[in-house]
Amino acid sequence: MNPLGEKYLRKNFLPFIFCPGCGDGMIIQAFLEAVDDLGIIDDLALAAGIGCSAWIPVYIHADVLKVLHGRAIPAAIGLKATRPSRKVVVFTGDGDGLAIGGNHLLHAARRNIDITVVVVNNQIYAMTGGQVAPSTQVGSRTQTTPYGNLEKPIDGCKVAIAAGATMVSRWSTAHPKALSGAFKKAMNHKGFSFVEVISQCPVQTGRYILGSGVPQFNLQWIKDHCVPIKDLSQMGEVEAQGKIPVGDFLRVEKPEFMEEVQRMNQRVQEERAKGGER
Amino acid sequence: MKAAERIEIDRRYCKGCMLCQYVCKYEVFEPGQERSALDYLMPRPAKVEKCRVCRLCETHCPDMALVVVARGKGKEKE
Q1: Reduced to 3 states, what is the DSSP secondary structure of residue A46?
Q2: Is residue A278 pLDDT above 80, yes or no?
Q3: CATH level 2 (architecture), domain A3-275
Q4: Check: CATH 3.40.50.150 for B4-71?
């Protein structure tokens, strides 16, 4: 077994529940590499909702909170509020994080609270049998859209930027080193960081949308379609059509929510000490 | 030049997705006949001498079952 796995995984839970060729295991490995480099396993708290990708933290030997469908971000905010020294990371899927828990994502980003949200995007509701998700491409045939999907897909990164996230990245399972680097930057960043990971799902996305359930085909699809922003800017309009830009989109510094809360507490206490009541 | 001593595939966890064979640029792996504990046909590191320890297979293994052991040079061996 991989030495990172020996060090950080719960051995009695193995093997992974994921299907053969699923990208979630690669994301665990990239995440553990970042955790190992930063040496923060003892300060780590993980939260997850429901879905394939919400199984990711369950295997990691850290504090884990598994909550209702889509409600991982409020739980993570609670974890952060009770002990601000803790590094809190949320693992969520595209259905869990962008549809059912979409509202929580907006408001956590707006507050700029220091948590990291990892959205694993496999373009479908995979665990429940392949229904259409908010990130499914137009025209895709799924279990609930047998004649093709009419809805335009949501862009998680653009939503996060618009809502006020201070660090936004998107990488894919075909870029494991860059993904690990993005996790590292996100956990070091002070403020709300959002990392979207384009992942392969051979069993649902592969079979129903892309036309092949072979893991190699699915990984090649990701390699062909996920283009770094630098290369994308040099492409023509026709060539760039249907491509998914990957890279680090945004990194800005803004006042962090818990620090602001602490500052306010201090200010109010000082005011009270000076002037009695109120 | 870097070389691998051996490539270990954990037969408790391998699910035979063959992504290691797919990402390998040096054609080290081939489909094997041995079955893992989960009853999948495992890949076989047939040509370990071709390996240049880029560890692409290791980082792409979805079940974290694969380890490339580099040929030790002094300190690394300890």
Answers
A1: strand
A2: no
A3: 3-Layer(aba) Sandwich (3.40)
A4: no
